[in-house]
């Protein structure tokens, strides 16, 4: 269900679509890039402020808005307004606003002399609101087996949005904020590229340990295998011997080299024996 707050306490659901539609309809008629940039910055700042205040209010009154329906109801789905669907839903509004920031503001930020810290903090906060809505919705659904059929589509959209909206932070050199979002919401592609770009193997190994249950090590191994970086792949034999052994089960030649690297000569012999007996 949607929060009682969403419709009864505020007009967030009516104001946000109007703000974005106003930007979209006004941009073509504005005479200068500076005017366009200022319009989008102003609209995005209002949306950020409204949603931040709304989230704080909702969190402070959470027990009240849940009181009319038992939490263990099989039909219960917590859908915060930052996750509301449809063309005028807040999730769609956040997606549109972030796209406008990237398309109109970011590409002109340097030429217009914008304060980079303020701009990227605005982008970060809107991303955080968007992703938090996904996580809250998924956390609710995963507790209810009756709603599990919704998970694949929501997770697929979440993964697509994470890559779409975090990657520009990385591409524009905002490494700390890109890393913070990627770590918080487990965007593995960005984390891998960040560590690779900065040459930080230790951070990469730390993330592989931190997200072991989420399969980050396999993500890295597959990335290296697909790109033909076999020597780099095998360099993880010492730090992640069991994980790499599992990953290489279907790659006999590489597994053979890996077993030698970890001094597992019994398995080395087994692979040789299997190879020559066939």
What topology emerges from the helices and strands here?
Layout: H1 4-8, H2 12-26, H3 33-60, H4 62-66, H5 90-105, H6 116-142, H7 151-171, H8 175-184, H9 188-198, H10 201-210, H11 216-226, H12 230-234, H13 241-247, H14 252-261, H15 265-277
Structure explained in plain terms:
With 278 residues, the protein is mainly α. The chain is built from 15 helices and no strands. The chain is globular.
- Main pleated-sheet profile: none
Would you count the extended β strands for me? Answer: 0
Mean pLDDT over the full residue set: 85
Strand content: under 5%
Give the tags.
278 residues; mainly alpha; 15 helices
In short:
By secondary structure, the protein is an all-alpha fold.
